[in-house]
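Summary: Need help interpreting a holo structure output

Steps to reproduce:
1. Submit the protein chain below together with the SMILES for magnesium ion.
2. Request a joint structure prediction with the ligand placed.
3. Inspect the structure token block that comes back.

Expected: a single structure record containing both the chain and the bound molecule.
Actual: see attached output.

Input attached:
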Amino acid sequence: MKELSDGKTSLSQLKEMVQKFVDDREWGKYHSPKDLALSISIEAAELLEIFQWSGEMGAKKALDTPEKLIHLEEEMADVIVYCLSLASVTGIDISQAIGKKMIKNEQKYPAELVRGNYRKYTELRGAKINQGENPGSSAE
Ligand SMILES: [Mg+2]
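--- attached output ---
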């Protein structure tokens, strides 16, 4: 397999690679949007399992060996592979979808409102309302 990297590999190339894998096995008949969405969630749960019971040390303890980091890499890949398949069967262009979503996120989370604060935008806007400010002025 040719060398892949984020800097050199396009999303289209990854989608084609995943689609070829699916086509070679005639698994397309199983890849309904619903089952792919379920698969994304199942693989995301496997990703979370890496951190389960990691206690106060959290990610540092969960990822403290090369084997655990490889496990993380594999579960992330599983999630992304199913996302690529879901995009393929639904005709969604991932780059456009991310671009549109990031514009929405910019509107929901204006940097001047949320900088250095992890709270959800609805809480922060609520705090602005209580202070007599117009919470909707920079969004939607
Ligand atoms: Mg997995």
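--- end attachment ---

Reviewer comment: The radius of gyration is 20 Å. DSSP finds seven helices and no strands in the chain.
Status: needs-info
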